[in-house]
Amino acid sequence: MDKTSSPAVEAAPRQFVVSDLADELIECLKYRVGKEPSVATRHDWLSAAIKVVRDRLIDRWIESTRRAYENGDKRVYYLSMEFLIGRLMRDAFSNLGMMEDMREALAAHDVDIDLIAALEPDAALGNGGLGRLAACFMESMASLDIPAHGYGIRYVHGLFRQEIHDGYQVELPETWLDHGNPWEFERREGAYEIGFGGSVRSVASQEGRGERQIWKPTERFLAVPFDTPIAGWRGKRVNSLRLWSAMPVDPILLDAFNAGDHIGALRESNKAEALTRVLYPADSHPAGQELRLRQEYFFSAASVQDIVRRHLSKYPDLHSLPDKVTIHLNDTHPAIAVAELMRLLMDVHGHGFDSAWAIAKQTFAYTNHTLLPEALESWPVPLFERLLPRHMQIIYAINAEVLLEVRSSGRFNDDEIREISLIYEGGERRVRMGNLAFVGAFSVNGVSALHTDLMKQTVFSDLHKLYPDRINNKTNGITQRRWLFQCNPRLTTLIRDTIGDRFLDDIEALSELDAYAEDHEFQQQFSAVKRANKEQLVKVVSERLGVRLDPTALFDVQIKRIHEYKRQLLNIIEAVSLYDQIRSHPERDWLPRVKFFAGKAAPSYHNAKLIIKLANDVARVINSDPSVRGLLKVVFIPNYNVSTAEIMIPAADLSEQISTAGLEASGTGNMKFALNGALTIGTLDGANVELREHVGDENIVIFGLTAQEVAQWKAQDYRPGEIIERSAELKQALEAIGTGVFSPDDPGRYGELISGIYKQDTFMVAADFDAYSSAQRHVDELWRTPARWHRMAIHNTARVGWFSSDRTIRQYASEIWRVPV
């Protein structure tokens, strides 16, 4: 879409007149869906409604693209393995200002827009916070009128659809594309060839400047782009999300087919399909690791080729690439793009190494999202060299350049040099993708103030010493259009009625709500909104799980990827402890509470999957015990996705952000909950540190060890068994779980999980348990004084406008990308 037709032959932009929309719906239904209204299904009406609005979106899309091309604007290219965009209908309708017009137009045909909107499948393009952040960023870039493209993979099945069978997670294919995707446009003419394997040979350079390398892959696939328009607020700009799908260069080996080898004849098609079928194939075995590396190179190489092609369509050469382009790497997954750009510059466009390296280093920026060593990707050198032999040569050359710089500085000892090296030499030789991204980028940012400081002190300490000006902080944010205006229309309406509309365009104007935090009438209205949202969640849980809940209970919610460092296990153990106390002391005035869990565990992550089973086992026992008198319920909602979050977050009273301090890079769930009037119970980890600064100490419940204290405890021979012996409630809860109280069919099911807490307690569950339990009882006391609770909740909503992704993107734009905003 870089070059468009001349204005003289363009159709005029379509208008938003309701009567015209109602007529267009019928026309679209007939000629583009192929149905008469009398026989049209809800899915047909959904398709027609999307296509009618999409036509208006295309007008803005073409105009935005032309404007950026003709003006020579610098562009941002955002490479991410995940884009958890969720349903797009409400995003597009709302951002174009067409939601109410389409509601009225559909109602003219007796169609309820809310019913058909619920039929749109969630785009299964991500797992958790990384992918949702990318989606929020894409929407904010369009809203702030920044020319940008997102690049990722068009996964046919995404991560997986989670079902719970007898309490266990079962992974099934997510079939979100079964009925097509009305938002996307296939651009087969824009396909690129992607190779794997083969050999590299040297040939004389045509320019007479020595030799250049030619890579001859043995496997070749086509990366076919599918473009989705991403609308900004009020339709200011429409940017593109380009997702790559794999196709074979030769769909069928006809000789093999005619010889009777019908399966072998299709092997190239099968290989291509595997590349873009599933997000994050299990990497617990070599085949899964290889597929994941193939995926990362496939989409990164296609994206870099596309970026180079776009640049050369406007400019004569690639020397100006850093002036007109920033390629942003969202974590280490697309780090191979650094080597791919170097390959194109040297092998295709004739640059020497020094010239190519100078261009690349000024083109890439890199966001790090984790301090966990296992998440800083690395690949075995033999695997990397077999799949990408030319890139391995380039990485060795980059490494030599960097290490010679390090050695010549005289500031590093041998151990420090080994940590800086792009090749890990401590055992199995591996390519360190985090180090490649770091040295190949002009900017490396963390995603919260704490995370950025810890990056400098831990995983990148030696690289930070080498390049002390490279690391900077950009605290994550969320788009309020999705996470307030769309998911919580009741609260949005109340805010508009109270402070006016300015916050719709300037979210930090929410601070005007602070003046109403003590207002009894406003507190009651705020509480009524929360109650209505809770009743909606109660209905969903009843329909999906058959569990009856009391909407007057405190709704305590932990929804996120299941991982030991996020400590769902701590939450479950505290639920068991509370269960014991309610039964042992029925005379006390216990607070009615529902503990909600939702999230997926990686298919090969045994302990995370066991935690899901434990949550369901605990729920089964507690929910069916009449002695609890309904005072405690535990609910695990399967197949957590964006649409489920949009129901759960507005209904939450308490937000669980309880990761082991120092391990959560940022978190964005904490921001979404606070924006919707939930109080946070959490550790001083990730963005919780900044959340506390903004909402105030008195409006958040903080407990547990700090990141510094966690490091100190671990350095001082931490002995969790001694702590457990001193905590009667913790010991009793662990014994109940470990001896089979919640698993009578298999008493030893959780023995290893519990013994891990006694022996290593890697994630400091025992160390933080008493503080967490005490903090929960403090929450009980706050809840017993409704006026105080409502005041705190209102302050949370009023004070978190700073956590908008608009603010984050403005900082990226001015401080990293150098684009006007």
Automatic annotation (TrEMBL):
Keywords associated with the record: Carbohydrate metabolism, Glycosyltransferase, Pyridoxal phosphate, Transferase
Cofactor(s) needed: pyridoxal 5'-phosphate
Pfam families membership: Phosphorylase
InterPro entries: Glycg_phsphrylas, Glyco_trans_35, Pyridoxal_P_attach_site
Name of the top EC class for this enzyme: transferase
EC identifiers of the protein: 2.4.1.1
Keyword flag Glycoprotein: no
Entry similarity comment: Belongs to the glycogen phosphorylase family.
Function, as annotated: Allosteric enzyme that catalyzes the rate-limiting step in glycogen catabolism, the phosphorolytic cleavage of glycogen to produce glucose-1-phosphate, and plays a central role in maintaining cellular and organismal glucose homeostasis. Phosphorylase is an important allosteric enzyme in carbohydrate metabolism. Enzymes from different sources differ in their regulatory mechanisms and in their natural substrates. However, all known phosphorylases share catalytic and structural properties.
Name of this protein: Alpha-1,4 glucan phosphorylase
Organism: Aquamicrobium zhengzhouense
